[in-house]
Q: What sequence folds into this?
């Protein structure tokens, strides 16, 4: 009788252990697949973004040549042609490439060699919990594009797994950050300040950059109690 009860107890324990192991394997398997899927989707979106910029650039060169030629022979309304070319906007860095990623407009992308990341950037008007799960979000300012004069704030999650801004804590002064915008401009920024602050503290967002291009990266600390802020300036 005792042996039977002992055997049943061992069997139950063994089943529970197997269930726990299977659960952990499924959990980690899903996470690995999710990371792989997002990385591939991000890579594809960035490639499409680059190809779109190159294609639009070639088209623009063709339009510019047409303007010059027709101006010489006096055979075209230059204002009409210029507006139809898509260059009537005051800011060339605003969304408009037509490239989407996970259902969001892509306005550029970020590269940080020191943490080995490369992700699309989506605009703040689409910011949500879901968007932060798959991309880097431009939080501030809301009326400009990337790589413009002033402070641009980019937010990313810290999943403590190496993705997005998880390894921002490893960044040091002098590390480089590259931002490519919809005009095809790739601007190099250099980290010069790193600090932690309260989660609800946001005075750094509209800080005075004295006429320079700067970026601020924001993410949560590993314990999620504070925010880790990185300042970088154009070099």
A:
């Amino acid at each position: 009788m005792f042996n039977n009860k002992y055997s049943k107890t061992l069997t139950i324990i063994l089943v529970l252990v197997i269930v726990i192991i299977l659960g952990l394997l499924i959990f980690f398997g899903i996470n690995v697949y999710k990371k792989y899927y997002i990385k591939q989707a991000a890579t594809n979106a960035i490639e499409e973004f680059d190809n779109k910029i190159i294609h639009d650039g070639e088209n623009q060169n063709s339009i510019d040549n047409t303007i010059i030629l027709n101006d010489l022979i006096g055979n075209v309304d230059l204002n009409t042609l210029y507006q139809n070319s898509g260059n009537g906007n005051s800011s060339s860095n605003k969304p408009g490439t037509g490239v989407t990623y996970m259902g969001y407009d892509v306005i550029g992308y970020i590269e940080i060699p020191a943490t080995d990341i490369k992700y699309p950037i989506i605009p703040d008007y689409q910011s949500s919990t879901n968007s932060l799960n798959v991309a880097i979000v431009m939080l501030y300012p809301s009326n400009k594009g990337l790589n413009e004069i002033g402070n641009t704030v980019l937010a990313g999650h810290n999943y403590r797994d190496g993705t997005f801004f998880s390894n921002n804590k490893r960044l040091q002064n002098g590390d480089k950050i590259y931002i490519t915008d919809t005009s095809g401009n790739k601007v190099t920024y250099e980290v010069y300040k790193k600090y932690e602050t309260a989660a609800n503290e946001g005075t750094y967002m509209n800080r005075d950059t004295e006429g320079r291009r700067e970026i601020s990266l924001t993410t949560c600390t590993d314990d999620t109690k504070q925010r880790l802020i990185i300042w970088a300036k154009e070099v």
Q: What stands out?
A: The beta strands are 100-101, 104-105, 108-112, 117-122, 136-140, 150-155, 176-181, 186-198, 213-220, 226-234.
